[in-house]
């Protein structure tokens, strides 16, 4: 009895502890989920709107069932195709929804036509041959379409359509319907798919539309800005440089926030897939807002590629600065500190100009000025390394300075490439001249053609030196 | 009459030319399509097999309609869900098919249960409130699920399941069926989905299965090999270096094929999305062939990230070599040519070892040897730049050599990182020791722990110097 009495509270206590533990875990999980949901919504409030839009579109289409008994009798089970279409094609952006809708519509039409055709042909054969004939044609069409889905161009834009084509052909061919039913079914299915598609596109466009083109436009500008933020961080750090050129090591200890600003560019490195999917969606979108009918979306991809090239160089530079245990004598450090800062600053200014120009859809008239200044300063830095240092400097002390200078020079030419691709974008999109375009201090700056940035830079070498 | 006679042959000729032109275009298009199809099939012959597998699976499932009249009567229109499931979930790799199948199965089960539950609840309310109650619950569930699809973790693995959940709930709730029908329909739908899923997975696994895990494994090894190819190209080029260090410029004119081998690494830069999707699929795959049950797929992603880091540095190096108009005096060139070649060769050897080790699933015992050799040579190169050059060398002549040396040093440490991540992969996957592991020439090389590569490198400095 004693032992039982001793065990019982122990058992009850154990159960109670377990229940409390589980309850705690559940409360924690709910709390965590709530926090994550809040973060998701805060990161992009359009996500909440999108969720409501999906619900609304489904309800709207399902009205086909409820309030229209004659239509319901007419559609029968096929009315569910409208609901299914909405669920499957409703995407975040208008372009993606439209693309999927058009794909589904055309694929249903083609698939339905071929399915009905195969069915009609099969009916001319004997009763025994008919299923074999139908099976073979489904097999053939499914195999060929599946193979076509591997083609990169078709995959990018018509992957969903090819899938729906296989689906429609299979469903119509093998459904076992009688020949006279098939045409009706194909017709009703196509009609309900069109209703579902139209409802999705309508709600997607009317209520707070999300344009993939606009997202791509903003992403391109934001990515360029991220590189600018890196250079701003480098500049402000260089100006407070005290002991040696281990840029980020001392940074690491002193200021976490500033270090984070130097890591912002990392997301640019892997932006390709996102940009391509946005561009694919954007190509489906009609003229809207500030975008002309034929927006050069491929040029955005080129700007993105140039931006990534620059980000690769920045990655190499920042990796070099973090990893290498370079020590630099005060004499050299003081001498290269100013030109390095100037180059960082000019690159940053140029990139900010380019990013702002894309955002405002104006020509980046002053970006070239900064690029040429950066080029001029890097030439100065080179000649400084050649002549400006005392002859008894140890060669090995120059290596870090030389490497940083070379990489910065590389980055300057990458920045020039970004500028060129943005200028081409401005040309193709017919961006306006900015309202606040002041006459350039040198005068002939603005009328120089795009390709002559080297000449401009030469002009500047004379000016600066 | 005369003018008409003169015009008529002209018109006929025009039509003939037009017809010939169109016919030519069609023939050309067919020829092109044939060529592209051949290329697609040649690039990866598994694509052809996959297409046949899709056709076969559809035919297999559609037998439900043809040869089993009692079952056909039982399933009715619901049999089409089996066909639809096959078309929608049949993916290239086993993992992707299994993932989509499991997603679809569980989502159909959950969605069906919740749909039936909502239907039952609604039947307790009045006739007028019922559609409003059902509509509201569909709206709520659709909105919440749509929102959840934005969560990165859910998006990666359960995006398709969440979509099917919305689909099933909507179809069951708003279908307008009577309460007693709904349970039957939900049951039959789930059953047919399971049949379709099982057929897809069966055919996917039985006929020439494509394992996403194996693809990821091979891709990881191939990407490391691509970097090795770059260094092999650099080495062979450096050994034939005659005039200056404009590596790729003279290359450009002399040997297109070799230049192409130097561009092979570029595909590594953007491999992240592909690797992540393969890893996501691989996580669904069961034990098979040479892979244990819990293969560390995330470690493959880490190896991939290290490989990309190295590729970024290579991009910076190759960009520097292409763009900079550096001239190097013969004296310096001759001196740095050999160490640069050695570093390239050692890096290449190390990467080849690592790639081969992954391929064979053995430990890369000899890769560290090459990495330490490369580290030793790069230290030698540094000290050569410090002391080995004549004191009257122009500083500016050293800049290119210093930059190349610094970047190569960076690349060596990246290679060491790749080696470390591959060693961790070998540890986690329990790779065997290679059969041909010869005792190391230095003896203590192999028993040193992973982290002591710096010590090893010091050993080597002594050996080499």
From TrEMBL, chains A, B:
The chain crosses the membrane at residues 48-67, 79-99, 131-148, 160-178, 190-211. It holds the Pfam family ALMT. Its main location: membrane. InterPro entries: ALMT (IPR020966). One of its GO terms (cellular component) is membrane. GO terms for biological process: malate transport; monoatomic ion transmembrane transport. The keyword Flavoprotein does not apply. It is a multi-pass membrane protein. It is found in: Membrane. Keywords: Ion channel, Ion transport, Membrane, Transmembrane, Transmembrane helix, Transport. Belongs to the aromatic acid exporter (TC 2.A.85) family. This is Aluminum activated malate transporter family protein. The lineage of its organism: Eukaryota, Viridiplantae, Streptophyta, Embryophyta, Tracheophyta.
